[in-house]
Amino acid sequence: MISKRIFAFIAAAFLSVGISSARPDEGMWLPMLLKQLNESDMQKKGLKLSADDIYSVNQSSLKDAIVSFGGFCTGEMISSEGLLLTNHHCGFGQVQQHSSVENDYLTNGFWAMNKSQELPNPGLTATFIVRMEDVTKQILAGADAAKTEAEREAIIQKNIAAVGKQATTGTHYGAVIRPYFYGNEYYMYITETYKDIRLVGAPPSSIGKFGGDTDNWMWPRHTGDFSLFRIYAGPNNEPAEYSPNNKPYKPKHHLPISLSGIKENDFTLVFGFPGRTNEYLTSHAIEEIYKVSNPAKIKIRDTKLQLLDKDMKASDAVRIQYAAKHASIANAWKKWIGENRGLRKANTIQKKKELERQFTTWVNADPTRKQQYGNLMTEFEKNYKALDGITISRDYIMEAANGIELIRYATGYAKLQQLIDSKAPQAEITAEAEKLERAAAGFFKDYNAPTDRKVFAALIGLYYNDLDKKLLPEAVRTAGTKYKGDFAKMADEVYSKSNLTSEAGAKKILADVKAGKTTGLKNDPAFILANAIDSHYKTQVLPTYTSVNDNLNLLYRTYMTGLRTMQQDKKFYPDANSTLRVAYGKVEPYEPLDGVQYNYYTTLEGIMEKAAMTDVPDYVIPAKLRELYEKKDYGPYGVNGEMPVAFIASNHTTGGNSGSPVINANGQLIGTNFDRNWEGTMSDIAYNPDQVRNIAVDARYMLFIVDKFAGAGHLVKEMTLVTDNTSGLPQVDARKKTETTKELSKREKRKLEKAAKKKKKEAAEVN
After folding, report:
1. How far apart are CA 463 and CA 562, in angstroms?
2. Which of 340, 473, 572, 595 reaches 20 to 30 Å from 508, CA-CA?
3. CA angle centred on 280, ends 278 and 283, rounded to 5°
4. Which distant-in-sequence residues (6+ apart) come within 8 Å of 763 by Cβ?
5. What's the angle, vertex CA 72, arms to CA 645 and CA 348, rounded to 5?
């Protein structure tokens, strides 16, 4: 029998290996460091390209086909005429803006049958990365002399401005410089941003959002989550403001699309702009997220979603107004639920505590290390304890108070009132009022006061009842007493008396302000409440929150230095921060629960099975899709009588990776990333290789919808379609290896016949 002491030692050693050695699938890697950190491992996993083929400054590479779409998603170039592919949910806001009850593109889809029909989108951008550079030395110059974290940050910001200006002066390029490993390193991205981006195509929501909130963050998935845009350029193929004279952008590289599909264990690469992860948090932070923050935010959003659902189902106008808002609210709500499930399933808090015990043991084994890192864990505990009451207050202000559109909108008038109170020159006051006037139209276009009134009553009620009264703004405490807890009555009074519930009312207030009459704003009940909550936040919550997080940033910077010294055999990747990254893994199934095995792909058959569940509104499908299924009219995009729809792989992704290309070993597009599985949403905090999967719409399903469903085959003809193992690098583009649907059908048939003969021959040999 193994003694308890020996067993404990073995268990600890095993746990240590699990923590310190990242599995290759884990990580969001910097493209410029792939050669030294990842190339060998990627090639062992099946990659047939070099690191230079993925990222290069001196030659065209895969990076030249990748864009930051709007600053919140990723997109990829898929034709030599500037055609851009991203997710349906990434382009959802643009589709909504172009929609009306008369032209309901959300419900019916939109397809430009020629370039003159493509729709402009003011404010939408597509940003390419020209090059990356390690600027750590320049950015940290003089930072060691700082006595406080605030002084250090001021020096760094000054250096960032100087380095960025020097790199871009005299060019049309931009510069983005971001910290990595909590400010231990800094990298600069030189960017090129295009501003004329036009909507080309989007499937109906019954395809692009198939499954809706029911399937969000879930697998198996059957969502055609894609949309098409086009980048337009001015003279010399350079960025330009919208003009009917602009021409389609000619990219340095666009991704060829593979019709050969995927199979289990295939190499996959995701290239994009992941938004935010926190992989190196201590157990103290994760406990706060798991036990305090996530449960509160889930409860608040659940309450709001129920109210929006009811009103959206009752009115098409409200449905269109709130479609994008609802999707955004629901997305994070369900993600937090899955994140907590994943953290619990992976025993993440205990694993972090074990790593911290190992770190403490390592520190105490050396006097020099003890002097440098000896107080770290004590200081972490002290600072997170200082956030008791602060984090929950912040969550309720951000989610409950600011979850009310009227409160959030009225808060935007605070600067105007400050100018009035400080007796600023009338010209400054007028300029601010005019700015608010311009913004009013956009806000009220998608605002419904009766719906927001219901949200107000519910969320102010949660705010008042869920928090210790000493954590509440005085105005909210007073309101609870005044209305005896009847916040519906409070909502009736605020919304009936406030001028900020309508565009006409808001413009009246602003017109009065410009005329020197300021009492209307100052006495508006919505503004009074919003201003009180905002003042409470700025005086009672934000100072402590900021101070503690400044302390924590310094602690984490030191902790990262220690961890990287302790685990010198481990390859560390920096947390995501909306900069260009590479993740890689393989097509791989998983087991979500004991006794349950999920396959790695789904087909159109699954859509029909879900559509048969007539009591689920999220599973309604277009008649034409059913017709194509019944006829098995899949063109060259189907395989053996099946139409592939989506697949999963073990790439490490997060928000911002939406729309990222999923690329095979040859550099060809095989899918578009759009989600993660529910069990794997905790990968923003800790990666669990057994559970984490990214979800992608199969490129063949995208082609099928564009060609066979939408009848927009002219768009497919722009693309470079391949059915062999030809490299997906620029030389493929030069060959213009585009084939017609008819030619591909013949070729696919020959390929299937050849495969069948080979299989038959092998079977005969075995027998």
Report:
1. 41
2. 473
3. 100
4. none
5. 75
DSSP strand pairing (110-111 vs 119-120): unpaired
Predicted local distance difference test score (pLDDT) of residue 395: 98
Q: What is the dihedral of CA 281, 287, 291, 296, to 10 degrees?
A: -30
Give one DSSP letter per residue of 696-754, joined into a string: EEEHHHHHHIIIIIT--HHHHHHS-EE-S----SHHHHHHT----HHHHHHHHHHHHHH
Determine the straight-line distance between the first and last CA of the chain, rounded to whole angstroms. 49
What integer pLDDT is reported at residue 411 of this predicted model? Answer: 97
- The Cβ of residue 572 has, within 10 Å, a number of other Cβ atoms equal to 15
Does the annotation mark 225 as catalytic? yes
Contacts 24+ apart (CB under 8 A), 464-469: 466/296, 466/299, 466/396, 467/392, 467/393, 467/396, 468/389
Residues of the chain with pLDDT under 50: 1-22, 731-749, 751-752, 755-756, 759-760, 762-763, 765-767
- Domain residue limits, the chain: 31-39+56-254, 283-563, 583-766
Active site residue 658: yes
Active-site option among 206, 293, 658, 660: 658
For residue 108, the tally of other CB atoms under 10 A from its CB is 15
The DSSP line for 103-159 is S-HHHH-EE-SSGGGPEE-TT--EEEEEEEEE-HHHHTTTGGG-SSHHHHHHHHHHH
pTM recorded for the entire structure:
0.83
pLDDT at 740: 35
pLDDT digits (tens, 9 = 90+) for 626-651: 999 999 999 999 999 999 999 999 99
Rounded Cα gap, residues 259 and 278, in angstroms: 37
| Sole residue written with tokens 């139209």 | 441
Compute the distance between CA of residue 498 and CA of residue 623 in angstroms, rounded to an integer.
46
Q: Assess whether 52 carries a catalytic annotation.
A: no
**460 in Cβ contact with 490 (< 8 Å):** yes
**Cβ contact 581:273 at 8 Å:** yes
DSSP secondary structure code for residue 82 in this structure: -
Separation between Cα atoms, residue 300 and residue 296, nearest integer Å: 6
Residues in the chain, overall count? 767
Q: What dihedral angle (degrees, nearest 10) is formed by the CA atoms of 685, 691, 694, 698?
A: 180
Q: What is the rounded CA–CA span in Å between residue 189 and residue 128?
A: 10
Given 225, 534, 684, 733, the catalytic residue: 225
Neighbour-count burial of 133, counting CB atoms closer than 10 A to its CB (0-12 exposed, 13-18 middle, 19+ buried)? middle
Task: Show the DSSP H helices in 346-412 as ranges.
Answer: 348-364, 367-373, 376-385, 390-396, 405-411
- Residue 346 tokens read as 């992976």
**Which pLDDT does position 17 carry in this prediction?**
35
Helix axes 474-482, 525-536, angle to 10 degrees: 130
Region of 100 please: left (phi>0), alpha (psi -120 to 50) or beta.
Answer: beta
Lookup result for tokens 């020209």: 130
> Can you tell me the distance from the alpha carbon of 621 to that of 604, in angstroms, rounded to the nearest whole number?
11
The H-assigned helical ranges of 21-135 are: 34-37, 39-44, 51-54, 92-97, 105-108
Closest CA to 28 of 351, 268, 346, 273: 273
Residue type (1 letter), 644: P
